[in-house]
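[agent] plan:
  1. take the single chain provided in the ticket
  2. run structure prediction with default settings
  3. attach structure tokens to the ticket
  4. add a short note for the reviewer (M.T.)
[agent] executing step 1
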Amino acid sequence: MSRDPQDTSTATPSPPSGDGASAGHQGAPPEHRWLVLGVVALAQLMVVLDATIVNIALPSAQQALGFSNGNRQWVVTAYALAFGSLLLLGGRLADLIGRKKTFLIGLVGFAVASAIGGAAPSFEVLVGARALQGLFGALLAPAALSLLTTTFTDPGERAKAFGIYGAIAGAGGAVGLLLGGLLTEYLDWRWCLYVNLIFALIAFVGGMRLLHPGRPTDRPSLDIPGTLLVSAGLFCIVYGFSDAQRHGWSAPSTWGFLAAGAALLLAFCWWQLRARHPLLPMRVPGDRDRGASYLAMFISGAGMFGVFLFLTYYLQRTLSYSPVLTGVAFLPMVAVIMVTSVTTTNVLVPRLGAKPIVPTGMLLAAGAMVWLTRLNGSSSYAPHVLPPTLLLGLGLGMIFATGMNLATAGVRPYDAGVASAMVNTSQQVGGSIGTSLLNTLATSAAASYAASHRPSPQLAAQAQLHSYMTAYWWSAGFFAVGFIVTLLLYRPGVPKSLSDPTGAAAPM
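[agent] step 2 finished; step 3 output follows
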């Protein structure tokens, strides 16, 4: 990655002829920009919480539709596969056909898919609807972030906007657990999908009124070979890690998909250096701060989603919390993430830069994971669960808002969509890999513990606690690696792209 401290993607190939990339990106009037933030944030919340809200509804959905334990993971995996593998395509489409159009199409499609899933009469229809949600989410998420990137160009306002947006991205998963518990317990599991219709309707009306139409006057061709290579590669990677949960790491279907995915992604990188209109111009991830931010989102996504999974198990199975109480237990962490995200981007990063902030967040998150390894069957919430989750919220708040801000700062308008897509791709693929990897390691740890101890009535519970501890140690390792990577890669000082953003334009 480039080590030129002045590189903010300004020394790049020229935009399409006629400067349509700028001229065509006419956007919302300045007085509407904070309303645009509300619309974009609502859409992002819908996409993020949908990754966890269905987890709470799974037992009830399984009972209603009668599918097996072996098949239930497809309700989650179908969404992750479609979403993770198509994000870069969605980001580039936002650049090519217009962010407003892509945003609205994504909202409508996501709502329709949610309605189909909520009314699903069978397992097959539910899985198909989840895949459709992932497809339209891959259009919606990068369009939403690129709208934010090109709407807020003033450094001070940009910091506030990304603080709010980063807080939502970091806390959305935990909000999904709470909302899923409330809807499942007091209404019906189908409302975990129907609720998206409410979010989408509000965001659609706001988008229609506040966002301005437009598109580049001279659009380059879509990179079809690059699209096929990266979509197939990401699909194989996500599927390979998901397959490891069912068949183990030695299964040909596991390592075969992982190897194919790695080969396809290498071929994609090779092609991007040669394509006339690349899907992901290497100038986007090639900037040192931007590349560090993508890695930070990937690593923290892997660690964070693992926490939500295993701490949810612990609260419900060991402490016997209801789904609603489990969601409430995450609220203090959510509050800390939100306050820290806003404070970090508005106060700390403008004065210190990202180099001391993101590595410190990684270190705090790693410490929180080590702290969680001390949980046992006699632990209780206030003295044992709450303190490490607050520390984790502090760390995640420092990582997410800063990472998202720098991952999109300084990009030209005609690259804003794909730069935003890389943020979502990093977090989504990291979350999918982290969840699959940690679940596999935890399952193996529980089996090994049970095999090496004398059978007793308490053995199953002790084996589960041992599996959670194993997952927390590995999560701590993820964040420790994140500390080293971000400490080495981020440039010292305040990035020029934040103090004097270039190439930004109003959204479409």
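[agent] step 4 note for reviewer: The chain has two domains: 24-222+279-499, 223-278.
[agent] ticket updated
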